[in-house]
Amino acid sequence: MMLIPIFEQILNGLLAGAYYLLIALGLSLIFSLGGLVNLAHGAFYALGAYFAVKLAEHIGFAGAFVVSPVLVALLGLLVERFLFRRFYREDPALGLLLTFGLAMVAEQTLRLVFGAAPLPFSIPDALKGQVLAGDFIYSRYRLAMLAAAVAAVAALWYLLQRTPFGRVVRAGVQNPDMVAALGISLAPYMSGVVAISVALAALAGVLLAPITGVHPAMGAEILTASFVVVVIGGLGSFWGVVYAALIVSVVRGLTAYFFPPAAESSMYLLMLLVLLFRPRGLFGERIVRFE
What distance in Å separates the CA atoms of residue 6 and residue 9, rounded to the nearest whole number? Predict the structure, then answer.
């Protein structure tokens, strides 16, 4: 009987790790190929949630689940083309300033347009209720969230590992000079990477919106935890980020059960321990920016 509440807390931790993972993978991809630390990534997460709230009024939750990440991906293409692209070859500090300023502008714009108060967003009727398996009780919607996150990560893995697009991206991360010598421009691939990355962040926003509500600062709140996952896993490593999200999830879930006040801080302590022994993270790789 004691194992059931522990298992429920681990599932809750996995749920948090799932949306951290969706955001962290995008952060890692953008940095790996473009050398840009995107502090505005949380803003795309918030935009995904806000778009979902407004779209659901007209096309329902299922429609918003599909359309909101697509709209954010299109916005990401514009941001990459007219802002990010100018800073790939510049001092990384300039990219940090750019994306930090963009994040602030996005948050204040959301406040002006939608107000500072949180917007309610209810769980769709089809996913309300509980899953019962003996003494185990868990939210049907939370299980659906986990399934959607796993499907999104699996699709990204397939794209990177089994398609021509993914092969060029991986080659660009490892040896951009060789890719350029072969006559392949990484610029359009970088646009695709940004679009996919911000779409994943928006998907996380759509999935989480019915649980936490939607407010302008939600992007800034989740960004720090997502960076922790990237740092633990190691920049440039797909599986490093996935394993880091799983480890953070389990540690957070167990901490929430045995010592609830330290649940949020447990991931930061874990990051400290990892960096003491592995400064590049668990699976960190050497990153070379493309020129």
Answer: 5
Q: Answer yes or no: are the C-beta atoms of 21 and 242 closer than 8 Å.
A: yes
Q: Assess if residue 198 is contained within a domain.
A: yes
Q: Report the domain count for the chain.
A: 1
Structure tokens at 265: 């801080």
Q: 267 lies in a domain?
A: no
* Domain span holding position 38: 22-216
In sequence order, the 6+-apart residues with CB closer than 8 A to the CB of 18 are 145, 146, 149, 150, 245, 249
Stated pTM of the model: 0.90
Of 241, 247, 245, the residue nearest 284 (C-alpha): 241
Q: How many CB atoms lie within 10 A of CB 285?
A: 15
Closest CA to 46 of 140, 97, 118: 118
Structure tokens at 77: 């293409």
> What's the rounded Cα separation, in Å, for the pair 18 and 226?
10
SS (H, E, C) 204-225: HHHHHHHHHCECCCHHHHHHHH
Within a domain: 190 = yes
| Short-list 247, 166, 134, 151, CA closest to 200 | 151
Q: Is residue 228 part of a domain?
A: no
Residue 278's pLDDT band (cuts 50, 70, 90): confident
> pLDDT (tens digit, 9 = 90+) per residue, 206-236?
999 888 889 999 998 888 889 899 989 887 7
Burial class (CB in 10 A: 0-12, 13-18, 19+), 218: buried
